[in-house]
Design brief:
The protein is an alpha/beta fold. It has 13 helices and 10 strands. Helix 1 crosses helix 2, helix 2 crosses helix 4 and helix 5 crosses helix 8. The model has no long low-confidence stretch (mean pLDDT 94).
Amino acid sequence: RDLDTRAAEEARLLAEHDARLVVGDVPPLACAAALRAGIPSVVVSNFTWDWIYAHYARWLADTPQLLPVIRTAYESAATALRLPMAGGFEPFANIVDVPLVARHARRPAAQTRDELGLPRDRPLALLSFGRYGLGAVDWAAVAQDPDLAVMVTRDAVDAGPVSSAFGGNVFQFDVPSLEARGIRYEDLVAAADVVLTKPGYGIITECAANDTALIYTSRGDFAEYAVLVDAMPRLLRCAHLEQRDLFAGRWTPTVRQVLDQPAVARPRCDGAEVVADRLLQSF
């Protein structure tokens, strides 16, 4: 279905619920529906979809109207609240820059380590790769490394690596079970000395907010990759790990390298409060 049809359907729902404002990250449908409903829309994001899709222009020959349709929808937004590490935003007439929106730990790192039985005598790394599993990692090599402790997680989406390969220095946690105990993912980020991950806005901001170093690997042909990698050194201690070293379990040298870096001035991470205040005051 085309965007206009979807926007008309969504506009009816907005009217039924007496909506006064639409806030989105950052679907063009939200802006188009708000316009049809006669109410303002605000986007909150660091990237826009037209900018991302333009990176894959060679694949858009069969959908030449895609980018113009997205940009026209964005043009109707009242405001774009632009987060750091940004790309795009050309269609928006009113752009306001805001600080990082990030999840902060709700408990001290030492408390989380003690409650989960995590060691303090060596660096602690958290693997954060979402649904992109790590079955190809040489877990035997990781398990034999006495100079590093590793946390891995699993949930309904990401089952995690095969636990039978783990040794005493690898700790696997079930995310729903942790949440039932009041331990959130951002608490694990704060408890770790370093996070191993692929670059993404959420994990970068969580590391920055909780003063945790970050080791990243490449993530293929993603439009946002270069922007994120360029911004990271200004936000936190970081280092690149080649994929061959990731899968071979050769992590400790890069962990030592990133932890030896001088501290980076912690950026503002109160974007959630800033965004909420602006929405309340302006709309």
